Amino acid sequence: MTPADLLGGAMMVALVLYALLGGADFGGGVLDLVARGPRREAQRGLVEGAIGPIWEANHVWLILVVVVLFTAFPTAFAAVSIGLFVPLVLLLAGIVLRGAAFTFRHYDRPDPRVRVRWGLVFSVSSVLAPLMLGTVVGALASGRVSADGKDPFLWLGGFPLSVGLLAVALFAFLAAVYSAVEAEGQGLPDLVDDFRTQGIRLGVQVFALAGIAAVLSYREAPLVFAGLTSRAWSLPLHLATGAAAVTAFAGLLTGRLRRARAAAALQVALIVAGWGLAQYPYLYGSGPTLAAASAPRETQVAVLWALAAGAVFLFPALYLLLRTFKGERPIAVVDRPPRG
Amino acid sequence: MTDLLAARWLFGLSLAFHIVFAAIGVAMPLFMVLAEWRWRRTGDAVLLDLARRWARGTAILFAVGAVSGTVISFELGLLWPRFMALAGPVIGLPFALEGFAFFAEAIFLGIYLYGWDRAGPRLHLLSGVVVAASGAVSAFFVTLANAWMAVPAGFTVRDGAATDVRPLVAMFPPGWPHEVLHVLLSTYIATGFGVAGIHALGLLRRPSSAFHRAALRIALGVGGVAALLMPFSGDLSARQVARLQPEKLAALEGQFETERSAPLHVGGLPDVERGETRFAIEIPYGLSLLAFHDPHAEVKGLLAFPRDTWPPVARVHVAFQVMVGTGSLLALLAALHFLVVLRGREHPRPLLRALVLATPLGVVALEAGWLVTEWGRQPFTVWGLLRTADSVTPVAGLGLPLAGFTLLYLFLAVVTVRLLGRQVASAPGEEAAPEPEVAR
């Protein structure tokens, strides 16, 4: 294990957590967009309440990935920034509009028309951001990174776009499952059913899009295809992902929602980790390896120490945040409960 | 417009936009937590109302600051990939630590904003304290990276890449203390006077409003102390810059000739062709005194340095004059405020009017000071090592993202101002304060 491998692993962990936490926030925006039926405003309200306290913290995982990338693998960061300029700019536009519109809706006049207008900006940008994020991942996996920036649309290909769509569906699926648990916790059986139905529908779409991406990877992303089919860990990973997916589905169908939530999160984590494993040791395509793009060892060791020190503080704080807003017994552990 | 110029405009615009929200994100949580702390001590419902309204304002501003900061972390690579390829490994450490400070800020702001009735009183107040502290820590780390760009240290360059990196030396380059201190003070000044101006207007309209009076005292209490400390910080900075970046000092002051007993140019416009600063008020010995605390010290002029390493002299000089001028004005206002408070009086109406007029001045000083740093480092991104022109991305057509982001920032600015206006417009006057909704 070199420092470069450890840092590559840390970036994967951060990406998995970004998918599970930040991804679900984007997914909440997608649910806002596709909310239908008589209880659509209630659905939107529940998602808004669920995201509100946590989306800014969830978002920092992405920044952490960027910072580790440019510190520990600076030439790769430069190359990716040049080669994927367009989708990254679109990703940024999505991130800015999503966060801003979400907050503006919360603090603007409580007039329904105003809410609908901000809701539209919020939900459309919640589709744009993961679409571009997935596309960037797809472009990295298939090595469609223009070396000198002279071909700004090299990333536009079937495989990157299919991964983009997969990311949108996957995050929305995750959000639906989380929201079902959230609705159950608030004692809203109608909404639980809405989100369960939504989750099953989105789960089917995830399955279909994953299939399309897998087929396209045969020609466009050989490393991913090899990861799916012929590496030593391919079969166990597939079995685990499949088992997680089945458990999530079964949980949604039978109303075992907490189990469904854990399984859905595991499923998403395994998909992201599978990409990382397939890609290893290359940072993108068959481009530079972790070792080749590495910053000086002193820097990498310093960053590892910084990450370790930060983690000691971060994880308890994150636990406190989730405990405060997502836990059953909100905060009795750390503070006396509020009066009344 | 060349792509280099478009890249500079886009990055400059992004930073000029973000820096306002970043500064408010440092100082506003302190105001809000001070209001809550005083409410918990006194039980005065006005203070709770104030804390909650300030928290709502903070929420809007922090969200815009968080997303615009994300833009910057990506733009570092999108616009300046060659700079990042060189500098990333050297200054990544403060950025990584800043990432954790930002995490802390976001996590505890979530608890603070949404936890009025979910977290207990101690946890809630503590969350506010953590937000305020981690905001300052964030600014601390980011400024370290900027200080390194001006006075790079802790590495050697071989074949265009950084080697022999000593991360801790690079993290604390020579001159870091003065820049960090200056930046931190500026955030409290910009926010303090910005907030104070709004509440001064409220007091002019409703002189007996306890709400506005409490708000004014907290905002000016913090911002005013910072404004009074600023001249000392400025003095420290002047002496450090004179020692570490003599070209920059010469540009700041419009000093072309190297001379002993150099005069201070107040105002004026440097004329690069003629090699003199025209229309300035000259204070004899002033510059030697300020830069070296010695009236006969020698101050290096721009002509002592190769012409192709000069920063844009006129712009740097004017921005510096704006920063010092507005900063001095605010220090004066702060002194008047403390005079009034110490004598146990109410603020006289002329002072309130002056405070209203001074609302944007802290932000003006902040932006001007930031321009001084950035223009003053030109034509380099890493001073003496990497020119801005050699840092830019090879991607063409940057005019398009520039246009797009300009519109986006305009839109965000307009909406933010409108929403904050909504918060202010609904602020209570002298009518009875609403019942507190949370237990103390």
How much beta of chain B, percentage-wise? 5-15%
Reported for the largest beta sheet of chain B, the result is:
2 strands, antiparallel
Low-confidence stretches of chain A: 330-340
Q: What Rg of chain B is obtained from the alpha carbons, in whole angstroms?
A: 23 Å
Beta percentage of chain A is: under 5%
Give average pLDDT of chain A, whole number: 90
How many domains of chain B, as an integer? 1
Task: Indicate the structural class of chain B.
Answer: mainly alpha
Judging by the overall fold, what is the CATH architecture of chain A?
Up-down Bundle
The DSSP helix count of chain B reads 14
Tell me the greatest interface.
A-B, 74 and 76 residues
Work out the number of β strands of chain A. Answer: 0
Runs of chain B with pLDDT <50, length 5+?
none
Radius of gyration of chain A: 20 Å
The structure class of chain A reads mainly alpha
- Basic shape of chain B: globular
Give the CA-CA distance, first to last residue of chain A.
Answer: 54 Å
Q: What is the succession of H and E elements of chain A?
A: HHHHHHHHHHHH
Number of domains of chain A: 1
Roughly what is the average pLDDT of chain B, rounded to an integer?
A: 92
Q: Multimeric state of these chains?
A: heterodimer
Protein model, in words:
The complex is a heterodimer of chains A (340) and B (440). With 340 residues, chain A is an all-alpha fold. Chain A has one domain (3-320): Formate dehydrogenase/DMSO reductase fold. Chain A contains twelve helices and no strands. The radius of gyration of chain A is 20 Å and the shape is globular. Chain A starts with a helix and ends in a 14-residue tail after the last helix. The model of chain A is unreliable at 330-340 (pLDDT under 50). Chain B is mostly helical. Chain B has one domain. Helices cover 71% and strands 6% of the residues of chain B. Chain B has 14 helices and ten strands. Chain B has helices at 3-42, 45-79, 81-114, 121-150, 167-171, 176-205, 210-244, 246-253, 286-292, 313-342, 349-357, 361-377, 388-391, 399-425, and strands at residues 156-158, 161-163, 259-260, 264-266, 269-271, 276-278, 281-283, 298-299, 380-382, 386-387. In chain B, helix 2 packs parallel to helix 7 (210-244) and helix 2 packs antiparallel against helix 14. The longest helix of chain B is centred in the N-terminal third of the chain and has 40 residues, at 3-42. The N and C termini of chain B lie far apart (58 Å). Chains A and B meet through helix 3, helix 4, helix 5 and helix 12 of A and helix 2, helix 3, helix 4 and helix 14 of B.
